[in-house]
Amino acid sequence: MKKGYLYIAIATILFSSMEIAIKLTNGTFNPIQITFLRFALGGLFLLPLAVKKLKKEAKLTAKDIRFFCWSGFFCVVISMILFQLAIGYTKASTVAIIFSCNPVFVLTFAALFLKEKLAGLTIISIIVSLIGIVVIINPFEVVDPIGILLAVLAAITFAIYSVFSRFGTKKYHYNGILITCFSFIFGSAELLVIMLFTHIPVIANSFMTNGLPAFANVPVFSGIGWASLPLLFYLGIGVTGIGFSSYFLAMENVGVSLASLVFFIKPALAPIFAWIILGESINFHTAIGIIIILIGSFLTFIASREIPKITLLNEETLKPR
């Protein structure tokens, strides 16, 4: 259990700095390119650990490869591209807060498809945290509906990836490192193929004509230099490799509900990081929203005393007879 809390703390800090680090790459990397680079780096960083894990168990089968192709597709190709586009249309802090709603979809999908039960207090904490997120977004002053829609779609598709990965841990006994590593590697490979297609003149011209220049002639290695390497390594190895694997290891140790604390604390922590690093001000309704979210997170922490029993019961019912 203590190990699970450590994983939550690591993932929370790294995820809360993600949008800030991505914003700092503006002007250096194409948004599609930085998605490919950071997930490729994260996957390669975790590869030795994943290979070591495979040696103890078994080799990858065709079934495993299909699974990781799908998980990588939902995470890297769909969710993270939507995420990048959302940042381009609206403020990074707004995207961070909306994306943090994905536990609502994770817990809902997990209850529907994985039959995972929710503690009553967990449901209350979700509602409280959502109220806090709404207060921070301040819907009465929304001026970027496209960016917000893209951020919501990114959150939903990331939730699909999370629940699909959770299904893998239950049915196929993949651990967090395996799922994270191979999802990133296969997802990056799929994205690389798409990037290469954008260099075909007909496709590139089509994107340019329709006002989507970011999708035309997407570079692969352009912009990589000594000045950009530290930030690239932080995004790829830190945020993507260590952050995502810590999140899934947290799910293994304490279950989906408690691991979702990562995204309930993130909307409160990300604006503080943005204030310290980028000098972005924290207005009154953001401060109130942060307090509400922290209250919701505290309720989730209290409810976690029920989670291990529920998780253990679910695991027992899924064991082969």
Report on the architecture of this protein.
With 321 residues, this protein is mainly alpha-helical. It has 14 helices and no strands. Mean pLDDT is 80; it is low at 307-321.
Question: Gyration radius, to the nearest Å?
Answer: 19 Å
Q: Give me the count of strands.
A: 0
Fraction of residues in β-strands: under 5%
Structural class given helices, strands, pairing? mainly alpha
The number of helices is 14
Portion of residues in helices? over 70%
Subcellular location: Endomembrane system
InterPro entries: EamA_dom (IPR000620), EmrE-like (IPR037185)
Main location: membrane
Transmembrane segments: 31-51, 67-89, 95-114, 121-140, 146-164, 176-204, 224-249, 256-278, 284-303
Give the topology, please:
Blueprint lengths: L1 H15 L1 H7 L6 H26 L5 H28 L2 H8 L2 H12 L6 H18 L7 H27 L4 H22 L3 H9 L19 H31 L1 H17 L6 H20 L3 H12 L3
Helix pairs in contact: 1-11, 1-12, 2-5, 2-11, 3-4, 3-9, 3-11, 4-5, 4-8, 4-9, 5-8, 5-12, 6-8, 7-13, 8-11, 9-11, 12-13
